[in-house]
Design brief:
alpha+beta; eleven-stranded mixed beta sheet
Length: 424
């Protein structure tokens, strides 16, 4: 059996892919092309890393087996993908993504993401699209200086779309649960709270245990909202003008570290200081204190310059604020969760950008863009789960990029059609 047949059978057996795709609705009144084949086209196109609606339409025109697999009677134009995604309901794709995530958790696929039995969700925003000319009613705006031909600078308006991602990071598996667009005139925290409220409804309050976020989210009202939602939290501290930052520095200086250890995974010697019972800010007041973990990390960096090997000592400092409910855990937990947050950059944003065209705008319509983003994380989850299931990938004998290429080449193999997804 070829790779694509394996993938479709795996997705059908583990996640009941047919049922999930049939849940998707659209608002077309008199559709000329059935929705089912188009939905399957959109998902499989992302699985094999097709980068645009034009390329996806080309698949339906040049590959007879693609049409046969998806159940298309004739080739389709790229405009129909834009038209149908405009009229899809984003909530359908969010429900489908929740179904994948819950099944993965039941199958223990997320165990590697846990720290001391706790599952931390990372929050961060990523810019999806920017333009000086193309705009829609949901575009955010910002002034940008452009260098002119006469070397003068001119202030112009740039239009862009930005999304907040909710991501579970681990050494073996990474999972994006949902995304939320940042609306014009609002900051990331407002979009993040809207996202978290929906996650609580879709996944329940105990699907994950806590939130990790960068310094942008280190704001009293946002952290107070996390307390009300019932989740633990850890945020990066960077603003030196905050009282909690200055107090943590002052109270930990000239003190013996709370713990010292070697982080084998990051090859660093680590010292941690814990300062408790601190007031975070005026916006975080209701008789609750916070704790701060300060880390000092040292390592050696080897390089070759001018044909000579050089070894240079490196050092970095980090600070995290954490809720008082984490006081019963060792400082290493906050250190590990704080650094685990970088998984959203490395395993989500970077991989989706390099392999799945994350920053490409398929069709500049707010609903279509959001739906396409949700289809992307759905297809990415299916592919990631299948890659983890593959022994060759687990043993490092096959890269995920090569696996995606094998899925694409599988369409060229002349196999009985009863092996394919649409059969039955």
């Amino acid at each position: 059996m070829n790779r694509l047949a394996q993938f479709l059978r795996y997705a059908g057996k583990v996640f009941d892919l047919k049922t999930l795709l049939r849940r998707v609705r659209d608002g077309r009144s008199q559709p000329q092309v059935p929705l089912g084949p188009l939905v399957l086209c959109l998902v499989l196109g992302l699985v094999i890393r097709v980068g645009s609606y034009l390329d996806l339409a080309e698949q339906t025109q040049s590959r007879r087996r693609w049409r046969h697999l998806c159940g298309l009677k004739a080739p389709v134009q790229h405009e129909i993908f834009a038209y149908v995604t405009e009229r899809m309901t984003p909530e359908d794709w969010r429900q489908n993504q929740a179904a994948l995530a819950k099944e993965l958790k039941r199958n223990k696929a997320l165990e590697s993401c846990k720290l001391n039995g706790l599952l931390f969700l990372s929050l961060d925003a990523n810019e999806h699209f920017a333009s000086f000319s193309r705009t829609c009613q949901r575009c955010c705006q910002r002034p940008v200086e452009q260098l002119q031909a006469d070397a003068t600078k001119l202030k112009v308006t740039q239009y862009y779309h930005r999304y907040v991602f909710a991501h579970l990071s681990g050494p073996k598996f990474n999972l994006v649960l949902d995304v939320e667009p940042v609306l014009p005139g609002e900051d990331e925290c407002a979009a993040a709270l809207r996202l978290l409220g929906r996650l609580r409804r879709l996944y329940g309050p105990r699907f994950f245990d806590g939130i990790t976020a960068d310094a942008w989210y280190a704001k009293g009202p946002f952290l107070r909202a996390l307390d009300k939602l019932g989740w633990l939290w850890i945020v990066v501290l960077k603003r030196q003008d905050m009282d909690v930052f200055a107090e943590a520095i002052q109270l930990s200086q000239n003190q013996k570290p709370s713990v010292e250890f070697r982080d084998a995974s990051r090859q660093r010697q680590v010292q941690l200081w814990r300062v408790t019972d601190l007031l975070f800010s005026d916006g975080y007041t209701h008789g609750r204190s916070v704790q701060v973990i300060r880390s000092e990390e040292r390592w050696t960096e080897r390089s070759v310059q001018g044909g000579h090997k050089r070894i240079q000592a490196q050092q970095t400092h980090w600070m995290w604020a954490a809720c008082q409910e984490l006081s019963g855990y060792r400082p290493e937990l906050i250190y590990q969760a704080g650094h685990r947050r970088w998984g959203i950059e490395n395993q989500a944003f970077n991989e989706l950008t390099q392999g799945y065209h994350l920053t490409h705008c398929y069709h500049h319509d707010p609903t279509s863009m959001l739906v396409q983003m949700l289809i992307l994380i759905f297809a990415f989850t299916l592919f990631t789960a299948f890659a983890l299931h593959s022994q060759l990938v687990r043993l490092g004998q096959l890269t995920r990029k090569a696996l995606a290429h094998q899925l694409d080449l599988a369409l060229e193999q002349d196999l009985p059609w009863n092996l394919w997804f649409h059969s039955g």
